[in-house]
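Write out this protein's structure.
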Amino acid sequence: MDTYDTIIVGGGPAGLSAGIYAMRSRLKTILIERFMPGGQMVVADFIENYPGFPAGIRGPELSAAMEQQARSLGLEILSTDCVSVDLVGREKVVRTADGELLAPTVILAVGATPRRLGVPGEDRLIGKGISYCATCDGAFFRDKDIAVVGGGNTAIQDAVLLTRFASKVTIVHRRDALRAARILQERALKNPKIEIAWNSVVTSVEGDNKVEGLQLEDVRNGSRRVLPVEGMFVLIGTHPNTELLRGQVTLDPAGYVITDEDMHTNVPGVLAAGDCRRKSLRQMVTAAADGAIAAVSAERYIESLADREM
């Protein structure tokens, strides 16, 4: 086995930030990422709310800068699949497709994936009018007609937020009643910029190089119509990438890792950071902050082990 001080699983903003702070603490660290480092930054066409970039920055550009900074400090990045983990005991084992790694601390930065509709045109137009984050991308849709798909708290709250920018917001909901909290429903229903397409589902997204409309189907009678919009926000929840961690650390009912404010899980030496963690706000800036805290906590944990052995 290859032995390290810290193993970081996941290479999004939380993982890269953890890598930067771990290397600055002179911890022997390896980061495992199955895809290109950067996580969801890589597919973000433009990022306007990350501190330090008043004119905004392209997602791939910010991702590459973070990766370059981490590598310049000596961070080892391994492009492979994480197959399984054994987090019990003083030394943790992370098994990858390329072999086993051993370390007293592991930082779980495996992220979460926005739930998609899975309809024709969706994959092709992500970042070209399709978004999964109103806070991130709302300002790009100023004075445009857009749609929000969903009926829960996040969808309705974000639909109201989007009225600050869009000229019209159509909420597409498959039922005849919203699932959001009553106060959120009242705000949405009173907002003159919001309309609701009841009993409707999106069956395809129209447009070649940008969103031009949505094909809607009425779930009651199967009738179809095209809703002309220039943007679609899919807000039907996220799915934490924590299947690998079940039975290893404590998860909440939705599958998110439960941590304290220092990113410690219930297992000594195991920390979690970023979107896989139970938290109130999932943004790149909070993920990066989580990663920094996790790395510092890992360093302190390693120091505590050394103190016990003296």
